[in-house]
Amino acid sequence: MKLVPTPKTHPALQMLQWILDPLNYMEKIRKQHGEVFRAKLSSMDVVMVSDPNLVQYILTNDRGIFSAPGEANNIFLPLLGDYSVILLDGEAHRKRRQLLMPPFHGDKIKSYGDSIVSISDRTMGSIPQDKPFVARKAMQRISLAVIMETVFGIAQGEQYDILKHHICSMLDTFEVPATAAVLFFTSLQKDLGPWSPWGKFIRSRKIVDDIIYREIAARRANPDNTSTDILSLLVSATDPEGNPLTDKELRDELMTLLFAGHETTATAMSWALYWTHRYPEVKEKIRAELESSGDNPTPLEITRLPYLSAVCQETLRIHPVAMLTFPRVVMEPVNLGGYDLSPGTAVMGSIYLTHHDEKIYSQHDQFQPERFLNKQYSAYEFIPFGGGSRRCIGEALAWYELKLVLAYVVSNYELSLVHEDEEKPVRRGLTLGPSRGVKMQFHGKRVRANTISEPALISG
């Protein structure tokens, strides 16, 4: 029986390395042991793989040889709640996904285009000229406003401002690796007062919960069949047996959509702005593509532009927001990459290591959008949204928003990076983000001679 290689570093030190410097941790072990190795992630021992064929094998057999148990994702529990689709198992998970999928596909996605562009316009227009700003904060405002409008149907007002403030406060609790450790060790999840990390978190969570439950009660009391926001759709939705979601189930799914759909997309948009301004020729190619796309391109037409799409793909290739696939657990003895795994073994695909495999992506550490124009990568070579039964539900909306916001900002505003040295990815809670948040300078509206007007982008 061939055993999976295991680092010699003490498990406690491995856990610390994983929390504080996850990319260096994974890269060092792969360099020492190859594409299949054991890793110590918080309280979980996992077999990590990065070979796309092995990742495919795991993700396409996650209801047979492997399972995708919700309890393996318990690290999300304090943020999302017991009934989040991420925490559900088996048939309950499958049914919940079916219930949540419709608002994130087809015509529903297209209908969000006008809101995304007008929100981008409002947000960018509020940034003071010739003063530095943090792009990640601006992108958070855009992505949160998009989620608030599409999920809750709320665009402004006191409840909107309070909800926005406390959602950001919850996320800011885990902004740096040191405080992110609170998520990995339940022993640190103690309320030591409003200024302690966990105390601050649970107080903001309570305020967010109160607002969400009031919104749910209001929709139940006054159903509106014409409403298109996701909360209204979920309140009226039923499972195949005709059962509606309970208030707690609704709350947990709304929290999932708020956090998964807001923070990750904002980070991706920040990286996209970073790369398009670190390499101005990339920005100019996007502008030229937009200018050649006609007088009145619709949001949908804009998101289909090949070079714009390649830039967004390369952004999520070189800096995937999620580092790993959701855990799978071995259900029966299996040989994986020449190693024998016994039932109960946890297995995860390393999205980051796959995206930085020199055999797949030559010059993997270089930002090269053209690689996506010259080659079609498989769904297991390029996996920014995971795969299998745990693939991200909001993937289509995330792509749509990322492309539209980048196109709108690049075509309408003159920006520059404050720092010339490279922005490094670091842990931000459970995801990766730019270390400085991408500091930029706003130089004003762009004077253009092209035919793509701002009203055309907005009216779509």
Task: Using brief descriptors, characterize the structure shown.
single chain, alpha+beta, five-stranded mixed beta sheet, three-stranded antiparallel beta sheet, 20 helices, 50% helix
Number of helices: 20
The largest pleated sheet is described as: 5 strands, mixed
Percent of residues in β-strands: 5-15%
Q: How helix-rich are the residues, as a percent range?
A: 40-55%
Which residues form runs of ≥5 with pLDDT under 50?
Answer: 449-460
Average pLDDT level: 87
Show the helix and strand layout:
Blueprint: H1 11-20, H2 22-33, E1 36-41, E2 44-49, H3 52-59, E3 66-67, H4 77-80, H5 90-100, H6 107-111, H7 113-125, E4 132-134, H8 135-152, H9 158-172, H10 177-184, H11 197-221, H12 230-236, H13 247-278, H14 280-291, H15 299-303, H16 306-318, E5 328-330, E6 334-336, E7 339-341, E8 346-349, H17 351-355, H18 371-374, H19 395-412, E9 413-417, E10 425-428, E11 431-434, E12 439-445, H20 454-459
Parallel strand pairs: 2-8
Antiparallel strand pairs: 1-2, 3-5, 4-12, 5-8, 6-7, 9-12, 10-11
Helix pairs in contact: 1-2, 7-8, 7-19, 8-13, 9-11, 11-13, 13-14, 13-16, 13-19
